[in-house]
Amino acid sequence: MQQLEVPSKQLLNAQLYLGRGDVFLSLRRHVEQRGRLSTIDYDHRSLEFNQAFFVKNFLKCFFYIEYLKNVVGFDYSQAVDLGAGSGAFSFAAKFINPDIKILMLEKNCKQVQIGNGLSEIFGFQRDLSYRVCDVYKESVSPQLPRFISFFACESSKSASQFMPLLGSVAHIVDYPEVMRSRIIEQKSNGGEYSNYVCFQKAVPDCLQALVGQKLITISGVTLHGKDIERRSGARIVCKGMANT
Fold first, then answer.
1. Residue 48 CB neighbours (<10 A)
2. Is residue 127 within 8 Å of 150, Cβ to Cβ?
3. Nearest Cα to Cα of residue 184 among 237, 221, 235
4. Residue 29's pLDDT is what?
5. How many helices (H) and strands (E) does the chain have?
């Protein structure tokens, strides 16, 4: 499997832009202890959250997209990022597929402000754009592939409200237990899934102090919307939850 070069220099520049506040370590400990049960007040703690987790979340998305590129390809020309936050999934996708254009939907203005600043750092502002909105109320083309990272775990919406967001295909990076619950929901609603994996990757040496770990666990899945034509060329790869 081809390993792509992690944009470590650009991520270090992003962390310089974000800074490292005095309280970000305590926030990191709180979130890591509570996992999917943790809640973040993004109106007041967006910067602290990104100081603590942006690089780590970027790497999780980057390594899942790397996996997709090697298994089924990742040649989208357009996509939509649901609950984009500060843009980790979109930025990872752009580094791997430089030609992609992404619409990023996010309702928190402070997250959008941080994301726009990071987009300038990366030089992506021409092809990545935000729309400030509630993703549950926004209408986008069902044919546009969806990117969803750490949104489902914080969403209190029911499965009946979440599933219509998927469109024809949605790539999701989240906690392993969220992956399992969403797949069960998808199957019970007659949908399909593929590229379901959970694996570990080494963090580049120069980023380990920022991430706080030498290894990170990536959990991702691709959900296919019910009764909507699937993207041609995608094949089912159900690999379970084996750690590698």
1. 23
2. no
3. 221
4. 63
5. 8, 7
Q: Which pTM does this prediction carry?
A: 0.85
Asked if residue 88 lies in contact with residue 15, where contact means CB atoms within 8 angstroms, the answer is: no
Asked if 195 and 224 count as a contact pair (C-beta separation under 8 A), the reply is no
**Which residues lie across from 36 on neighbouring strands?**
none
Q: How many C-beta atoms lie closer than 10 Å to residue 233's C-beta?
A: 8
CB 87 within 8 A of CB 119: yes
Q: Are 76 and 48 in contact (CB under 8 A)?
A: no
Rounded Cα distance between 168 and 129, Å, is 21
Tokens representing 4 are: 């792509």
pLDDT in tens, 20-63: 755 555 666 656 665 554 566 677 778 888 988 899 999 999 99
* pLDDT value for 82: 95
Q: What does the pLDDT look like over 183-236, one tens digit per residue?
A: 777 776 777 888 899 999 999 999 998 888 899 999 999 988 764 433 333 332
Please, where are the H alpha helices in the chain? 8-18, 24-34, 42-71, 88-96, 109-122, 159-162, 176-188, 208-211
Supply 175's token pair. Answer: 């906690």
Tokens 């399992």 locate to 180
